[in-house]
Every structure is written in structure tokens, then in C-alpha cells.
Amino acid sequence: MEIKFINDPPTIINRFVAEMRDIEVQNYSLRFRRNMERLGEVFAYEISKTLKYTQKEVRTPLGFSNEWFTSDKIVLSSILRAGIPLHNGLLNYFDDAENAFVSAYRKYSDEGDFDIRIEYISSPDLTGKVLILADPMLATGSSMELSYKSLLTNGKPAHTHIVSIIAGQAGVEYIEDKLRGEPITLWIAALDEELNAKSYIVPGLGDAGDLAYGAKL
């Protein structure tokens, strides 16, 4: 598995990440969602450099021009609900992509431990396509692993790009171990070293789904 960091050297994306982390800016859910969407657009641009292209002739008002178009068939997938703004950013650039969605959540026990549950999958055939699987936070990595393996019931992609804005070191190591040998590239905008007792990334930014769409029960 290849890992790519898009925050080094520093660019405008570092400001987007900083605003998402900032507890003052987090008071504005619209700003939080928009920063997540903008990061999705940046990820899409970077991923586009890895795709296959063919030339097609385009007619202009004054003649014809040979232009490059993506020849890969792309499927965008996100883990509900936190992944929706990130998905929208990717879709802004890959506007002709097919789309898939996975509902995954943590089911906590009385002791505070949790299992990952997959409740719902909506996906086209993935066979031979490029899958871009997005979730803003990669904490333990277990929900990403289960989401990826659940999507494989709809066909094996030629390549998968996993996109996370902030990843914990433990989550990266988990994905590297559990998905070893799979044709996967992991894209990250920021890497944090710690997880707390509830397996949230530290310093992280909190619950991305709540910050984007409001608190849940």
C-alpha cells in the first residue's frame, strides 16, 4: 500500500485543516463543511494525476483540438454521514463518476468497548474500476477496513484510493496490516500520533459528523 501526504510542503490546504481543527471556527457548521468539501477537491486533483488518459478531438468555434480525458471509470464512495461533504468535493471534480455509499457506525458496549457495524451499502459494479473511498477521519482503521471489504461484494476494483483528512498513526498501521497486498493508495492531509481512551484522534478535531450536521443522540 502506498501512502501519500498532501500537506508537505505546506500549501493552502494546511489552512483548511487548521480551520477545521479550530474550536472557534467550528461554531460555523457551514464553514466546516465547506473546508471539508474544498479538501475533497484538492484530493481529487492530486488523485487525477495517477489516472489513465486518452485523447479525444474537440470541436471549437475555430477548428478542432485534441484534448486529454480520463479513461478510467471512477466510483466515489463515502462512509455516512461524516463523509458526505468530502464526497461532494470529490464529486465537484469527478462529476461524471458513479457513486456508492456505506453506512458504518460504532456500537458501544456497557464496558465502553465498541464493534463496527455495517448497516447499508449502495454501490454500482466496481469490477475493474477506480474506487475512491472517503472518510474524513481514520482513527482505528476498523470502519475503513470493513467498509472496503463490504464494497468488494460488488466487484473488485482495479485500484482503490482511500482518502482521509486526518489520520491517527494507529489507524494507518492497522490499514497497512489488514489490507496488505491490496492495490490501494492512502491519501492523508494530516497525521496525528495519538488516540484517546475512546479511540478518538488527538489532537484531531472532534466528531466530524456532529460538526458538519449537528449533534446526535
Give a quick rundown of the structure.
The chain is of the alpha/beta class and 217 residues long. The chain contains 6 helices and 12 strands. It has one domain: Rossmann fold (3-Layer(aba) Sandwich), CATH 3.40.50.
Task: Write up this protein.
With 217 residues, the protein is an alpha/beta fold. The chain has one domain (2-213): Rossmann fold (3-Layer(aba) Sandwich). The chain is built from 6 helices and 12 strands. The strands form 3 sheets. Strands 1, 4, 5, 6, 7, 8, 9 and 10 form an 8-stranded mixed sheet that branches. The chain has a two-stranded antiparallel ribbon with strand order 2-3. β9, α5 and β10 (184-192) form a beta-alpha-beta unit. The model has no long low-confidence stretch (mean pLDDT 94).
Write the layout of secondary structure elements.
Layout: E1 2-5, H1 12-21, H2 29-48, E2 53-60, E3 63-70, E4 74-80, H3 84-93, E5 98-108, E6 114-122, E7 130-134, E8 137-138, H4 142-151, E9 159-168, H5 169-178, E10 184-192, E11 194-195, E12 201-202, H6 208-213
Parallel strand pairs: 1-10, 4-5, 4-7, 7-9, 8-9, 9-10
Antiparallel strand pairs: 2-3, 5-6, 11-12
